[in-house]
Give the backbone structure.
Amino acid sequence: MARVVVNVPAEAKRGEVIEIRTLAGHPMETGFRRTQLGELIPRDIIRSLVCTYNGVEVFRADFHPAMAANPLLTFTTVAAESGTLEFRWTGDNGFSATQTAAIKVL
Amino acid sequence: MKFCTVILSALVAAVSHAGEIPSAERRSGYEFMSRETRAMQDDEVTGPAVLWLLDGEALWGKLGCAGCHGDAKASMKGVAARYPALVDGKLVSLEQQVRHKAAPLPSSLAYESRELLALTAYVARQSHGMPIQVNEKTKPLMDRGKDFFHRRQGQLNLACAQCHDDNWGKKLAGNTIPQAHPTGYPIYRLEWQTVGSLARRFRNCLTGMRAELYAPGSPEFVELELYLMWRARGMKLESPAVRP
């Protein structure tokens, strides 16, 4: 099971811009490297991250080769109402990971 | 002839080692890093090494470490700050001590395996910010490490001290030469894109010097680690640190 970490403020004022940090454990193998015997190492990367806030998509990112291993992504959204943020990473070789975080809007 | 000798000795004095770095001038590798890389190390929630810390915490329960040692947050506090140490008369590094129960099973907790690095990082983390101490009883072994550090070796005929004692702060290609204080191992190294041990770092340097490589856990490396810890005595442990 892939290890993922998200950091969402536990509380925010309504209308406040909140910062969300996400970290996903993944080797992000580019598909361009070769072994010492000259064989191509197949590509193995995360393809996308989607963040939904109470079911509404608020952020989406496409990943490409040559992004670092264990990618950290930081983005912002507006604290609209109390609820949950859901994060879903998908990638090559059936990679999939999800994480949720609760937020309380005052 | 005598004149030549005077010139020669003057030259030798000029190029020979500047000696040990005074404690006031000691700098952790952290201080040579960019603002961005420092931010990665300082991020305790989403820093890259957090992935290994979480794995280490899970392994602590799964491998039954807690059966003898209880809560690592209490029992492992300060442990990493005094390793390598003498255990039953033998000098062992923190990693070797972490794998003591796994010794009959060499397939698990192999050197440089994710499991061993994660568990070592988790144990070392419990001593975060604590000053490095070295037991004076290890002096004979430490002297061997000191000899290794000052001995010219490899095809380039270099000694560790020539860079890390005499020329720290200057540039080697595009990189700043650090003082070689092992304050943050195991480290998440950006060049490696993963966590690695001090032995792996030693092998990097020795490869660059075109010198003989030793195996992780070999006495040569543990003695060198002991000397470097003594050299960094009193400095704060940052494990698991981030380095470029």
Observations:
- Chain B has one domain: 27-243.
- The domain at 27-243 of chain B is CATH 1.10.760.10 (Cytochrome Bc1 Complex; Chain D, domain 2).
- The interface with chain A takes residues 40, 43, 45-48, 50-51, 54-55, 190, 193-194 of chain B (CB under 8 Å).
- Residues 4-17 of chain B have pLDDT under 50 and may be disordered.
